[in-house]
Write a structure and sequence with these properties.
The chain is α/β, with parallel strands linked by helices. It has two domains: 174 residues, D-Maltodextrin-Binding Protein, domain 2; 106 residues, Glycine betaine-binding periplasmic protein, domain 2 (D-Maltodextrin-Binding Protein, domain 2). Helix 6 links the parallel strand 6 and strand 7. The protein has 13 helices and ten strands.
């Protein structure tokens, strides 16, 4: 399947570039995949580009926090989606140890925070203000949470510190973690049938913003150090009393040895930069169109030659 899907990309390159780029080391470039669709599809998009210029590629399922230590040690070659809100701390810690560096920065602007579909405003008209949400907490209660509201968080390994924020701001909510991104989408779809109020973790870019119009909850504005220093933020004696960055970065990270071992692939990697709509489209091919990641990547490459073919010339 992978070879069949990679062949059209190679053919496109042969026509557009006129000649193939020489292969690097015959060892495979190790590309990690995580548990959300845009990252999985983007990994296969870039992997198929690497294959088309003669490189070998291997995909490994890797913890989205531990991956930065793996890159630093050379066990994994790169990471294509370093989200500031979710992974900035783990990435920075690895940078400080050495062995990993920033290889690129996407044009996309990210945001990761509490979110609700617009129909929720009918039950809680003070939204998006977080204090208005807290006053409406009972509207979000479930049998699992009793008289408190339920906030549906992302998978535990995304380390969003939602419980710390609930505690810091004294919110009348219980954090329940979903097992996957797909579980989050399923919950929105189920709530949509009866227009049931729901608040959950969401992020941009992804396909959901086109399918379910909604808004992010507005917490106290993010200030650097809010999660570490009690003096930073509106409450002087606690941490995590701010929202997440509203204009977060989305970076590309690479192992320090990648440029020497796979110079041609590394050169391509440093040119890669995707926008919010491009990344959302990658996710849509899997989450809405039900394609397998390999097929979604090949489709995206075929339909977006003007975006990427210049990176390999």
């Amino acid at each position: 399947m992978k070879l069949k899907l990679a062949l059209p990309v190679a053919a496109i390159l042969a026509v557009s570039a006129g000649s193939a780029i020489a292969a690097d080391s015959s060892d495979p470039i190790i590309i990690p995949v995580h548990n959300w669709s845009s990252q999985i599809v983007m990994s296969h998009v870039v992997g198929q580009i690497f294959q088309s210029i003669g490189d070998n590629v291997e995909y490994v399922t890797t913890d989205s926090q531990a991956v930065y230590e793996s890159i630093r040690l050379g066990d994994v070659s790169l990471e294509l989606e370093v989200w500031e809100g979710a992974f900035g701390a783990s990435y920075t810690a690895a940078l400080e140890k050495g062995g990993i560096h920033e290889a690129g920065n996407h044009n996309a602007v990210t945001r990761e925070d509490w979110w609700y579909p617009l129909w929720t405003k009918e039950a809680c008209p003070g939204l998006p203000d977080w204090e208005a949400l807290n006053a409406c907490a009972a509207k979000f209660a479930t049998p699992e949470t009793g008289d408190k509201g339920r906030f549906l968080g992302g998978p535990v390994d995304w380390l969003k510190h939602d419980q710390e924020r609930v505690d810091a701001l004294g919110m009348n909510f219980v954090v329940v973690n979903a097992g996957s991104a797909a579980a989050l989408w399923a919950e929105i779809g189920a709530a949509e049938k009866d227009k049931k109020p729901i608040v959950l973790f969401n992020w941009t870019p992804n396909f959901a913003e086109a399918v379910w119009p909604g808004e992010f909850v507005e917490f106290p504005k993010w200030v650097d150090g809010c999660n570490e220093d009690p003096k930073v933020g509106p409450k002087p004696d606690v941490t995590y009393d701010c929202g997440n960055p509203a204009n977060g970065y989305l970076k590309i990270a690479a192992w320090d040895g990648m440029e020497k071992k796979w110079p041609d692939a590394y050169k391509v990697l440093t040119k890669i930069s995707f926008t919010n709509p491009q990344i959302a489209q990658m996710a849509k091919l899997v989450d809405v169109d039900d394609m397998e990641p390999e097929e979604a990547a090949a489709t995206w490459l075929e339909e977006n030659q003007d975006v990427w073919k210049g990176w390999v010339n």
